[in-house]
Amino acid sequence: MTDNAIEIHGLKKTYAATGRSPAKEALKGIDLDIPRGSIFGLLGPNGAGKSTLINILAGLVVKTEGTVKIWGFDQDKNPRQSRAAIGIMPQEPHLDPFFTPAGSLDVQAGLYGVPKNQRKTAEILELIGLTDKADAYARSLSGGMRRRLLLGKALVHSPQILVLDEPTAGVDIELRNMLWQNVRKLNDEGMTIILTTHYLEEAEEMCDDIAIINHGEVIVRDSTANLLGRLDSKTLVITPDSPADLPALPDTITGQKLANGMLTFTYQSGTTPADQILNIVRDAGITIKDVKTQEAHLEEVFLSLTSSK
User: Which InterPro entries match (predicted)?
Assistant: First the structure.
């Protein structure tokens, strides 16, 4: 067994032409290894190929070319074992309205061949906060509760890998916090988590490693810390002791006066020392009441990489 939960090599997917739509190459030779025990972010703009990749992992889409190994099992040679190693929480809450949460989890476990005496229905209901709704019809659940049930269904067969496809899109803060508490708990217990999200601050906070996909290709794959380090840009935020205008600045520094009176100075830390900015401010006769720095955020990295492709 390798140290990777998932190994993808040369993965391609081309959708055949239909009607007036030409053939579309959704994945163009993806190479990607996802370490065991990590929380891994899979990011990219709409239409980048993320959903196609996830559906291939789930066994819902047949790849055109390449190899996929899930928990050491080749998807072509050992389809049953590879599928049993992964649980998918989809974006859309497709649930049978006539099943209760307990019944839905039991049926899902049965589909995976989990014997009745090994099912963890009560434990999962407790984890997702639906114990008191165990016997309520799914059609009576709120949107947030249905999202929780989707997470529960992805866990019934105790997978080693959990894929969360846009799990917090359109949910309230309480549900989002509950979900991330559960994700951290599962990860602490050894589960590998793969997360797709449009909320880049979530990926920045949660993920150990990140891959960014654009136009069916992995354009970058690195640790979150290293990705953030790729941007040399920093911002110095100065609160003047009294109202002040921006001083004259060299081309290497970009300044802005905010509505609240603060002055911001954006610069490349590799070529411009912060002392230079402070000296410029002091030489302009501005007394500094407070000063702080802001590091680059993942959103800036994401935009800088995808806008050039």
Answer: AAA+_ATPase, ABC_transporter-like_ATP-bd, ABC_transporter-like_CS, ABC_transporter_ATP-binding, P-loop_NTPase
Q: How far apart are CA 220 and CA 222, in angstroms?
A: 7
Residues 6+ apart with CB under 8 A from 294: 234, 235, 236, 237
State pTM to two decimals.
0.78
Q: Helical H runs in the chain? A: 50-57, 79-84, 101-111, 121-127, 143-155, 173-188, 200-206, 224-230, 274-283, 298-306
Compute the half-sphere exposure of residue 17: CA atoms within 13 Å on the CB side of its CA.
5
Is residue 92 included in any domain, yes or no?
A: yes
**Which residue range forms the structural domain that includes residue 283?**
231-296
- Residue 254 is assigned to a structural domain of this protein: yes
- Nearest to 162, CA basis, from 71, 74, 88, 105: 88
Residue finishing a domain among 206, 228, 250: 228
Task: Give per-residue pLDDT as tens, 109-126.
Answer: 999 999 999 999 999 999
Domain presence at residue 147: yes
